């Protein structure tokens, strides 16, 4: 399964993370926003759609930069592709009712993160 996610940086270098809703796989853990790539989508189109759906933020596909990927072994073989982008302003809303926030690296690393998101956060700060 192919999943895409976004490390969105604000002007002071903080990263946007959101909390997975209770009852879902990895519920309550924090993650980069994003989601599954549908069969008719390219990864970039899927990520633009997910960011709009989850945070009400429209991004241009060309503003996304591929960064790193992680994988979770197992039956579903989830591969999570991380892109980066800069936040240029606009109102953000947790449209699924999820908590979200901007975090400096140390604060992000102290959150209970989903496993692949933790790996990707570490790559971002190498
Ligand atoms: N962000 C993240 N997603 C993960 C990890 N491990 C893992 O299996 N996933 C899976 O990757 C998918 C992410 O897509 P999503 O955010 O659109 O999924 P979702 O929870 O809304 O839908 P779902 O409940 O149908 O799975 C989920 O199925 C999630 O369970 C992980 O470490 N980080």
Structure description:
GO terms for molecular function: 8-oxo-7,8-dihydrodeoxyguanosine triphosphate pyrophosphatase activity; 8-oxo-7,8-dihydroguanosine triphosphate pyrophosphatase activity; 8-oxo-dGDP phosphatase activity; 8-oxo-GDP phosphatase activity; metal ion binding. One of its GO terms (biological process) is DNA repair. It comes from Aurantiacibacter rhizosphaerae. Residues 1-126 form the Nudix hydrolase domain. Pfam families: NUDIX (PF00293). This protein has 126 residues and is of the alpha+beta class. The chain has one domain (2-125): Nucleoside Triphosphate Pyrophosphohydrolase. Helices cover 22% and strands 31% of the residues. The protein has three helices and seven strands, in the order ββββαβββαα. It has helices at 43-55, 105-109, 115-124; strands spanning 2-9, 15-19, 30-31, 34-36, 65-72, 78-86, 100-103. The strands form two sheets. It has a four-stranded mixed sheet, sandwiched between helices. Strands 3-2-7 form a three-stranded antiparallel sheet. Strand 5 and strand 6 form a beta hairpin. The longest helix has 13 residues, at 43-55. It starts with a strand and ends with a helix. The relative contact order is 0.28.
